[in-house]
Every structure is written in structure tokens, then in C-alpha cells.
Design brief:
There is one protein chain. The chain is built from 8 helices and 9 strands. With 228 residues, the chain is α/β, with parallel strands linked by helices. It has one domain: Acetylglutamate kinase-like (Carbamate kinase, 3-Layer(aba) Sandwich). The strands form 2 sheets. It has a 7-stranded mixed β-sheet, with helices on both faces. The chain has a two-stranded antiparallel ribbon with strand order 5-6. It is globular.
Length: 228
């Protein structure tokens, strides 16, 4: 069955602290093109990652900078990362970077790349809005974790991994902080929207592409599934 997937790809996977991960991007491209040939459609939203943090930290060391300016700098970092990914896919991808998830994308292309939207909204929220606009039932959030845990496993040894959870219980984990710079498995504003729309969100490790392929194929995979 042909499906539309929205993938929220963490910027630190594309561009970690030590530079662009070329090997990952080559393999990611191969996987997405393979799935697109099967008829699936992909909206891929790229985060800011390490580049965003470096620019924000540099600005704060030199001047007194507003939160809005920091957010805009982060948004531009997502656009830079997104443009790189768009270029990699060449003519297989839609020719423009999606910057506003509320607008209809008129294209027959199977691969559409986007980034951040405006201050105060994370790429998780952008991905969820795109899912709403394009009738995609699933958002796949790819970061550097295999599962969501009941608490930070690096701090709490008794933290338990979560394979399946409903939105009501998930909201207890992420809380109400909607600051885009705050790291949570899936931000609170996007969480409330996804719950309202009845969207399924899958959180998985973006570096493990075989696992992502299993997920896209409807096979058993490692990750946390959140749904009503």
C-alpha cells in the first residue's frame, strides 16, 4: 500500500559536531529512493543540530541577543541542512525547501524536503503540521535514541524503555515546555497537536537505517510508538 510518511530528521544526524556525515546521507538517500520507487511519498523535515548550537553560542558570547533572534538563527540552520539534503536527492526531490507547513505543496515529486518555520515552533511541530496538511497518518522522528524512556537512562539506572505508549501518558513525560531549544523526545506543542489529530508518532534511532527500513516496510523494529 502506498503511504505518505513525514520524517523529522534530527540535524545532529545530518551535521554532527565533527562535520557533515556524508556516509549517512548517502545511505539515507539510497533507502528513501528505494522506498519512493515503491510508491511511498516522503516529507523530510531537517533540524538545525550542532550548527544551530554553534551559531547561537557564538552570538551569545559576543552580544546580548534576543530569544527571537536565536530562534531565527536556528531556523536558518535548518534551512541550510535541508538545502544540502535537497541537493543530494537531485531531481528526485521537489525543487523548493518547505518553510511553511500550512501551505499546500503542488508537486508530483515523491520527496519533499523542509526545515523550520518561525520562532517558537520546533521541527517536530512543523512535521506534525505537514502530516495534517497532507493527510499522513505517521510521523517518524529520527534522533540519536533507540527508545523513549520513563526517565533519562544516563541519570536514572531504573529508567525503563517504552515500546508503546498513548498520548495521555506521553504528555506526562515531555511536560509543557515548548522552548525549541529544550531537548525532549517530541516537543509538547507537537504532542498536543498529534494527539488531537490522531497521528501516530514513531521515535527511533536515525543512524540505524536498516531499522528505519523495517519500520517503513511495516516489519518489527526498535523504537517507541505513540498513538491514541
Amino acid at each position: 500500500m502506498k503511504k505518505t510518511f513525514v520524517i523529522s530528521l534530527g540535524g545532529s544526524i545530518v551535521a554532527p559536531k565533527d562535520g557533515i556525515d556524508i556516509k549517512f546521507l548517502k545511505e539515507f538517500k539510497k533507502l528513501i529512493l528505494k522506498q519512493a520507487k515503491r510508491g511511498h511519498r516522503f516529507f523530510i523535515i531537517i533540524g538545525g543540530g550542532a550548527i544551530c548550537r554553534k551559531y547561537n553560542e557564538a552570538a551569545k558570547k559576543m552580544i546580548k541577543v534576543s530569544e527571537e533572534e536565536l530562534h531565527w538563527m536556528g531556523i536558518h540552520a535548518t534551512w541550510l541542512n535541508a538545502y544540502l539534503v535537497k541537493i543530494i536527492f537531485g531531481k528526485s526531490a521537489y525543487e523548493k525547501i518547505i518553510k511553511n507547513p500550512t501551505l499546500t505543496v503542488k508537486t508530483n515529486k515523491k520527496i519533499i524536503i523542509g526545515g523550520g518555520w518561525k520562532p517558537g515552533w520546533t521541527t517536530d511541530f512543523v512535521a506534525t503540521k505537514l502530516a495534517e496538511k497532507n493527510k499522513a497518518g505517521t510521523v517518524i522522528n529520527l534522533s540519536n535514541i533507540d527508545y523513549v524512556y520513563t526517565a533519562d537512562p544516563k541519570i536514572y539506572k531504573n529508567a525503563k524503555r517504552i515500546e508503546k505508549i498513548n498520548w495521555k501518558d506521553f504528555k506526562k513525560i515531555v511536560g509543557d515546555d515548548c522552548d525549541p531549544s529544550v531537548h525532549t523526545p517530541f516537543d509538547s506543542v507537537a504532542t498536543r497537536l498529534a494527539e488531537k489529530l490522531g497521528i501516530t508518532v514513531i521515535i527511533a534511532n536515525g543512524k540505524k537505517l536498516k531499522n528505519l527500513e523495517d519500520c517503513l516496510n511495516g516489519e518489527k523494529f526498535k523504537g517507541t510508538t505513540i498513538k491514541n
